Amino acid sequence: MEGRKKKVKSILISQPKPENGKSPYFSLASKHKLKIDFVPFIHVEEISTKEFKKQKISILNHDAVIFTSKNAMDHYFMMCEKLRIKVPETMKYFCVSEAIAYYLQNFITFRKRKVFTGEQMFSQLIPVLKKHKECMFLLPCSDLIKERIVDTLKSNEINFTKSVMYKVVCSDLSDLEDVYYDILVFFSPTGITSLYKNFPDFKQKDTRIAAFGPTTAKSVADYKLILDIDAPNEKAPSMSMALDQYIKVSNKRKR
């Protein structure tokens, strides 16, 4: 692994470029004089009302909704609109973070008495949910929801219904000339699947692979790739920090 720590000049982040111009990756690029490109390897697609109805779930049988992402929120309200369901004003909303809760203002009249937030991690929302155990919760999600979220709700005896409202699919990367960057950064197993779907002859060689989360790391191993950078870890809770620490070492090595 030490022999793989060669100088880093270019990084491909397999996510959309931040729209607000604020990102730790921009600071990373400036700090280390890097070329950093953003290309989403996956995207989400809505499901049809027919697909939704196959789940035999009644949205109005729930008096609270758990939102883990803005995507989940978008597709929940989109599905309600397609089904011509008027969401009751008494509906309660439980959001993983304040940023997601703030996003609610795009859909409802924001009232603190019916909006509850965690701090950032899903586990931090559990104590809030437990205070409302009388509620029947709906969990809008993708077809690739992390099982730990479902398991956490079950183990804490939260009364909820999982409802798939959108799909995560591989993006068409035909506009991308190649993927020969010094580091490729992945945040989900589907991102790695997309890599091989678009570039079936991909060979890792000296390209370093960075993976966020244990399921992504497992996918790296499943495809027989070398995992050079993993996050989160004890020293780096975020991917940008893990990259920074790796580059500090690799770019100081003598050639």
Protein model, in words:
It is a single chain. With 255 residues, the protein is α/β, with parallel strands linked by helices. The protein has two domains: 2-41 and 174-250, 3-Layer(aba) Sandwich (Rossmann fold), CATH 3.40.50; 45-168, 3-Layer(aba) Sandwich (Rossmann fold). The chain has helices at 24-32, 49-53, 70-82, 98-103, 126-130, 147-155, 189-198, 214-222, 239-250, and strands spanning 10-13, 35-38, 42-46, 64-67, 92-95, 115-117, 137-142, 160-170, 183-186, 208-212, 229-231. Strands 3-8-7-4-5-6 form a six-stranded mixed sheet. β9 (183-186), α7 and β10 (208-212) form a beta-alpha-beta unit. It is elongated, with a radius of gyration of 20 Å. The model has no long low-confidence stretch (mean pLDDT 91).
Can you tag this structure with a few keywords?
31% helix; single chain; 5-stranded parallel β-sheet; 6-stranded mixed β-sheet; alpha/beta; 255 residues; 11 strands; 9 helices; Rossmann fold
Question: What is the element layout, followed by pairings?
Answer:
Elements lengths: L9 E4 L10 H9 L2 E4 L3 E5 L2 H5 L10 E4 L2 H13 L9 E4 L2 H6 L11 E3 L8 H5 L6 E6 L4 H9 L4 E11 L12 E4 L2 H10 L9 E5 L1 H9 L6 E3 L7 H12 L5
Parallel strand pairs: 1-2, 1-9, 4-5, 4-7, 5-6, 7-8, 9-10, 10-11
Antiparallel strand pairs: 3-8
Q: Treating each run of at least 4 consecutive H or I residues as one helix, how many helices?
A: 9
| Name given to the CATH architecture of the largest domain | 3-Layer(aba) Sandwich
CATH class of the largest domain: Alpha Beta
| Largest β-sheet summary | 6 strands, mixed
